[in-house]
Amino acid sequence: MTDTAVAAAALGVPGAVVDPAIPAGTPAVLPASWFSTADEETRGFLQNKGLDKKDAAAAAFDLVGQYRNLEKLRGVPADRLLTLPADPAVAGAMDPIYERLGRPAKPDGYEMKSEAGDQSSADYVKWASETFHKLGLTKTQATEADKALRAMVADMDTRAQEAEAVAKQASMTELQAEWGNTYATNVELAKAAVRKLAAGEDEINALTAAIGDKAVVKLFQKIGAGLAESPFHAGGPAQSVSGATTPEGAKAKIAELHNDREFTAAYAKEMMEGLRGPRSILMTNLHKLASAGHA
Fold first, then answer.
1. Exposure string (b/e) for 258-275, b if CB count within 10 Å is 16 or more?
2. Could you point out which of 106, 116, 223, 244 has its C-alpha 20 to 30 Å from the C-alpha of 135?
């Protein structure tokens, strides 16, 4: 009779046979289980899995099968697994994952370069590096994000310039309709005012670029007309008209301009079209100065 049968009979299990060789009153002792030396938590695990009902060999094969199925589901070795934090929103909780994925240790690890001497470029690089690092981007991701951002800004600049050009064209079309035949002359007056008021080449270029907006052109046209129409007052202090301050000087300037084919052609065009342009205004003032003191 086996030890298990004897113990079962001793415990009064129905149908159990008591071994006559065992003296009556001997304490019943069940044989130790194969996992009896395991800690309490392990024993509970085996019991919850139903492995306590199996012998050691069967339980071992069962566990091996479960582990192999786990590997199939996992698909990668244990050292390639990442564990998500309980609360990803907690500051720094995602840092170990970001670092495993390839995020640099510090923002400057992205090695982004700024344009030499360009503070706005330096500010952008600082902002982008810190933002990319906070978001956990890898160097490759940061490089692609930087390219996309720069392309977007360049596209926005191009669109803004195109929109500005269209707006200026529409504005000048309105002004051309408003001024009619005097449009070209008035635009020349505006440009002349820019050249007169600007101190240097950079200012001339900047102000000339502004000529294209209706309000700006009208403003400089008024300034140009005022400068061109500065009258000569007989008996008053000497005033310069295109460099001439005396009647003799004015006569010499008139003769000089008559010998200037480009000026003469433009002046004749203004006279024929009845326009009060910068050349006709200049000649009027020169003639006033030349005739000063004469009845």
1. eeeeeeeebbeebeeeeb
2. 116
Could you read off the pLDDT of 158-191 as tens digits, one per residue? 999 899 888 888 888 888 888 888 888 778 877 7
Residue 91 lies inside a defined structural domain of this protein: no
Residue 25 has a pLDDT of: 57
Long-range contact set of residues 180-185: C-beta below 8 Å, sequence gap at least 24: 181/273, 181/275, 182/275, 182/276, 185/270, 185/275, 185/276, 185/277, 185/278
Give how far Cα 18 sits from Cα of 30, 31, 67, 203, 288, Å.
Answer: 14, 16, 43, 119, 150
Does 101 reside within a domain?
A: yes
117 vs 29 pLDDT, higher one: 117
- Pairwise CA distance, residues 137 & 149, whole Å: 15
Residue type, 89: A
147 lies in some domain: no
- Written as six digits, the tokens of 209 are 């670029």
Answer yes or no: is pLDDT of 7 > 50: no
Q: How many CB atoms lie within 10 A of CB 239?
A: 13
Q: For 245-266, how does the pLDDT look when each residue is reduced to its tens digit (9 = 90+)? A: 788 887 888 888 888 887 777 7
Please check whether residues 224 and 241 belong to one and the same domain.
Answer: no
**What is the domain range of residue 247?**
236-295
Instruction: Check whether residue 167 and residue 220 sit in a common domain.
Output: yes
Confidence of residue 16 (pLDDT cuts 50, 70, 90): very low
Contact by Cβ (8 Å): 184, 177: no
| 3-state SS, residue 241 | strand
**197-220: average pLDDT:** 68
Q: CB within 8 A of 106, min separation 6: which ones?
A: 133
